[in-house]
Amino acid sequence: MTIFITGVAGFIGSNIARRLVAEGHRVVGFDNLCRGVESNLDGLIGNPLFAFETLDLSDLPAYRAALARVHAAEPVTEVWHMAANSDIPAGIADANVDLRDTFMTTFNTLEVMKELGIKTLAFASSSAIYGDFKGERIREDMGPLLPISNYGAMKLASEVAISAAVESWLDRALLFRFPNVIGIPATHGVIYDFVHKLRATPDQLEVFGDGTQQKAYLHCDDLIDAMIFIRDKAPEKLAFYNIGPEDDGVTVRSIAEEVVAVAAPQARIKFGEGNRGWVGDVPKFAYSTEKLRTLGWAPRLDSQAAMRLAVRQIVEQSF
To answer: CB of 16 within 8 A of CB of 5?
Structure first.
């Protein structure tokens, strides 16, 4: 197949591109390099099965022309829409960031797909669409969905737009609801932030909040396995699945202690106050993954093992 990936130079996009190319698919990817970096594509660029173009997906005429050119050369079978703003605090400070980089990239992707007759879409959604359920284990059928960040709001708006497209013209849509995904090449996230803080101040790690925030963490390798499994096995026309480990997660305190132990054992950890790291942060989060387990998939690593592996990978990447 020929598969098109948006946000291909980002953390998730570059990993899924590698997996699909390894499976023998032709992959074409666009990225505006706002948060992704071209070095994430090392080993892919130059491969005859991979092509990359720097493009702003919020520019609809440019997007339309570029994907039409790709589709004319070799028809695109599937679109994997991974592009989005990944910086939740940035979206809180300026709502236009999530409107442009999260929702409008989805809206424009749907517009171009409809025009070109491409009818299968895989979408990187998020646990942020649910809002704060106060630590209750969240199932796919729970509601009301009341996001507390602009990032979550625009991911939810994207899901709604995709659902409407399935009703009218899209043959199949896969909505992957991610937890906190960790691994390399890291571009953001709590482990990445801690490691880079220690590079700047090796004697002290400052933590936003009191460290009691607790969430599930999934290693990127497991995430890619899950997405491909759902693509191959899910029977629904509109398939939406929580992807994550089956545990209650790990605390920010334990992550900070692990990062310090690996990167700067002499450093002192300085915690803040309150159980939110920033506005829009859900302090305690747990997923129900029963729906995905019933389909036949479970991760290889739990939150603790994924966190420890990712800490070592990101420290090695950063130092």
So the answer is: yes
**Residues 160-204: tens digit of each pLDDT:** 999 999 999 999 999 999 989 999 998 888 999 999 999 999 999
Q: Quote the tokens at residue 81.
A: 């829409």
CA torsion 154→157→161→166, rounded to 10°?
Answer: 110
Which tokens in the block code for residue 160?
């709604």
DSSP state letters, 149-217: SHHHHHHHHHHHHHHHHHHHT-SEEEEEEE-EEE-SS--SSHHHHHHHHHHH-TTEEEESS-S--EE-E
Residue 104 has pLDDT above 90, yes or no: yes
List residues bridging with 1 in a β-sheet: none
pLDDT tens string 14-42: 999 999 999 999 999 999 998 889 999 99
Q: Model's pTM, two decimal places?
A: 0.92
Q: Which of 6, 8, 80, 105 is nearest to 47 (CA)?
A: 8
Please write the tens of the pLDDT for every residue from 53-98: 999 999 999 999 999 999 999 999 999 999 999 877 787 889 999 9
Distance CA 260, CA 50 (A): 38
Structure-token pair, residue 297: 């998939």
